[in-house]
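INTERNAL AUDIT FORM
Audit reference: QA-55
Scope: verify that the stored structure record matches its stored sequence.
Auditor: D.O.
Record contents follow.
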Amino acid sequence: MGHSGHQPSTLMTDLLRHSSGVAIIDGGLAIELERHGADLNDPLWSAKCLLTSPHLIHTVHTNYLETGADIIITTSYQATIQEFEAKGYSTEEVESVSRSLVRQEKPTTKDAKKLNMTLIVVAMS
């Protein structure tokens, strides 16, 4: 995901310039999710939480933004095709779930704009 009209390197340069050369990234997602009651005992831990408890992801990301995070990492990086197929999902179901995971991350982006904060969403897989 990115901001339209900007190259990724420009986004990072702009972010660092805006934040005096230091950007704060979110962290400790698993600990925070468990603190809010999530059961992460699954190879898809963060993706499972997006499917079963998206409100917890939203809460944790909002807390990160409110406490000064400049960069939020999406929680879909565990959502690989191989992991979903190992859990019995078909390729079509994996594609559908992947689209759903991206849609569920969007409310955090809207909240960041309301808080007037810079947000870069980094998806890893």
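Auditor finding: record pair retrieved intact. Residues 23-122 form one domain.
Action required: none
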